[in-house]
Design a protein that fits this description.
Layout (H helix, E strand, L loop, with lengths): L5 E2 L3 H8 L11 E2 L13 E6 L15 H9 L9 E7 L5 H17 L3 E5 L5 H8 L7 E6 L16 H7 L5 E9 L6 H9 L3 E4 H6 L5 H5 L3 E5 L5 H4 L12 H13 L5 E5 L5 H18 L15 E6 L4 E6 L6 E5 L13 E5 L1 H8 L5 H11 L1
Parallel strand pairs: 2-4, 3-4, 3-5, 5-10, 6-7, 6-9, 7-8, 9-10
Antiparallel strand pairs: 1-4, 11-12, 12-13, 13-14
Helix pairs in contact: 2-11, 3-4, 4-5, 10-11
Length: 382
């Protein structure tokens, strides 16, 4: 079984947990120990540590996650009822591909059992292994990456900087959409920016999100897999002074984005990568994880789990067609319908709803077609 490759947490860590307040999160989690492995069937969320950082190519091949766990489990939970388990660590295999194999199969097993895996890396190329887990689920995948770079193939060739190329090019091709949140223009060539546009992917500059983080919420609402590169946070807030970043998200903004990920009914896997496991960085990583789980406990089981009939329907006539919007009375969130077009090459089997904003609806009234709707239509026919 794939979990045979997981390393249990050590006795020093369990001594630390026993010293925590009885109300602390660490006293309510079921851990993988030398003698016991958590019951997956009773879990809702599973923490997986992956210590392999070879994808960065910086010589730091094995990151220590002890500080992250100690910070995280010292926090107090919200009004959380779901069972959280910590499965321990996947240690580096003989090759990166060995690590990918174990992570891919572990994530697939958890998702099949309706458990949300939270992966603490490790280098961000581990996102590729998480993406490949969906091969076994036979579905198209929407990936959201919070990152200052697009991670296409670069001259250095290191996997952490090029994993997106593998998602796009390698078979089976299950990637329906990729969205980048927080890219910084000077870290990305014009050729890469043009390619994102050509593939009808979504990309939001750092400044756009910092000015109005709410525009990212529909993007996360439509995601299956969310990957956070911690170097997208400025060093003053992340505590990472090994790789100094003067610009990036602040601590509050990255936690807001993490909460959007958690609150999304559609997100089935989440990961935080590209950090050094230092004490300073661990404080923010712990809070990012906390906000994801907090968001998870506020999921509203709306579309695609609820019926369209449960929402208010708004029809906006345009010159050549109609745009159909839906609004939830429960959360006041909005969706726009992508129609099923019969008789042509079509990735959709039926009409579907794309998360959007109230501003998209107002724009449609002024005869402005929402950009994400237009891109989704184009991707559907490619």
């Amino acid at each position: 079984m794939v979990f045979d490759f997981f390393q249990p947490l050590d006795s020093d860590f369990f001594e630390f947990v026993q010293g925590l307040s009885s109300q602390a999160l660490g006293r309510k989690v079921v851990f993988h120990s030398e003698t016991d492995f958590p019951n997956i069937e009773k879990a809702a969320i599973a923490i997986i540590g992956v210590t392999d950082s070879r994808g960065l190519g910086d010589g730091n091949y094995d990151v220590d996650l002890t500080h992250v766990r100690k910070e995280f489990y010292s926090l107090f939970p919200g009004n959380w009822e779901s069972q959280i388990v910590d499965l321990g660590n996947i240690v580096p295999g003989n090759s990166l591909e060995d690590t990918y194999y174990v992570l891919k199969n572990a994530v697939a097993h958890l998702i099949k059992n309706r458990v949300v895996p939270i992966v603490i890396g490790g280098s961000q190329d581990l996102t590729y292994a998480m993406y490949r887990a969906y091969d076994q689920l036979e579905q198209m995948v929407n990936v959201v990456s919070v990152d200052s770079k697009f991670d296409f193939a670069k001259e250095d060739g290191f996997p952490a900087n090029s994993f997106l190329s593998g998602m796009i090019v390698e078979e089976p091709s299950n990637l329906f959409n990729y969205s980048n949140i927080g890219y910084q223009t000077y870290f990305n060539s014009q050729e890469e920016i043009d390619l994102i546009e050509k593939l009808y992917f979504d990309a939001y500059r750092l400044g756009e999100i910092c000015n109005n983080s709410a525009i990212a919420e529909p993007v996360f609402r439509d995601a299956d897999l969310v990957s956070i590169d911690l170097t997208s946070v400025k060093s003053a807030d992340s505590g990472n002074f090994v790789k100094f970043n003067p610009n990036g998200f602040n601590g509050k903004e990255i936690c807001v984005l993490s909460r959007y990920s958690g609150i999304s009914d559609k997100v089935t896997s989440f990961g935080v990568f590209n950090h050094n496991g230092s004490e300073k960085e661990s404080v923010l990583i712990a809070q990012v994880l906390w906000y994801f789980i907090e968001g998870y406990h506020y999921r509203s089981k709306e579309y695609p789990f609820g019926a369209k009939e449960d929402y208010l329907k708004y029809i906006v006539p345009l010159e050549d067609e109609e745009l159909i919007f839906f609004k939830s009375d429960k959360t006041e969130r909005w969706w726009i319908e992508i129609p099923f077009l019969s008789g042509i090459n079509n990735k959709l089997r039926r009409s579907t709803l794309l998360p959007c904003t109230y501003e998209d609806y107002l724009g449609a009234i002024d005869q402005e077609i929402p950009e994400r709707w237009w891109k989704a239509q184009k991707k559907n026919l490619v």
